[in-house]
Amino acid sequence: MTYLLNEDFRKVLEYISDKKEFTEKEVRRELKIREDEIRKLLYILEENGVIYPLNIINNNGKFDFRWGNRVPNKKEFFNLIFNKELDKIKKEIEDTPKTIYYCENCNLGYTFEESYENDFKCRECGTILKEKENFRIIELENIENNILLLKKNYIPEKRVSKARGKR
Ligand SMILES: [Zn+2]
């Protein structure tokens, strides 16, 4: 659902976070993660405007791809990608109806509009629909909490100033 919850992806993020440039081969060699996995993540980051393609390296017919990082600072890098993802989830929570109308007979959920149009009866079997909390909201809130927890690992809140020297 969100790429930040993928452990392999986070290894790659950690690796590239403070680099101005990197190549796919280098990431693969350093982290032993599959090429298609790496590429999947790099495309997500490109879409988010965090990295950009630089050039193609031809090593005797074996191609490698060099990427540039727009935010080559670990703290800023993670701040940016975590906040982008949190904004996306918040927006999705706002756009998702809080309640659904549910048929226990067919295990089908309807939006308010859909059930209103059909007198709050199931379109399949005619059973009176029950109002229920939309499970999707709970799911999204769980994801949001997980991202917030993760974010703390990467961007510790600055209360303790002596932690600064630690690496
Ligand atoms: Zn039904």
TrEMBL record:
<dbReference type="GO" id="GO:0006367">
    <property type="term" value="P:transcription initiation at RNA polymerase II promoter"/>
</dbReference>
<dbReference type="InterPro" id="IPR036390">
    <property type="entry name" value="WH_DNA-bd_sf"/>
</dbReference>
<dbReference type="Pfam" id="PF02002">
    <property type="entry name" value="TFIIE_alpha"/>
</dbReference>
<dbReference type="InterPro" id="IPR002853">
    <property type="entry name" value="TFIIE_asu"/>
</dbReference>
<dbReference type="InterPro" id="IPR016481">
    <property type="entry name" value="TF_E_archaea"/>
</dbReference>
<dbReference type="GO" id="GO:0006355">
    <property type="term" value="P:regulation of DNA-templated transcription"/>
</dbReference>
<feature type="domain" description="Transcription initiation factor IIE subunit alpha N-terminal">
    <location>
        <begin position="7"/>
        <end position="142"/>
    </location>
</feature>
<protein>
    <submittedName>
        <fullName>Transcription factor E</fullName>
    </submittedName>
</protein>
<dbReference type="InterPro" id="IPR036388">
    <property type="entry name" value="WH-like_DNA-bd_sf"/>
</dbReference>
<dbReference type="InterPro" id="IPR024550">
    <property type="entry name" value="TFIIEa/SarR/Rpc3_HTH_dom"/>
</dbReference>
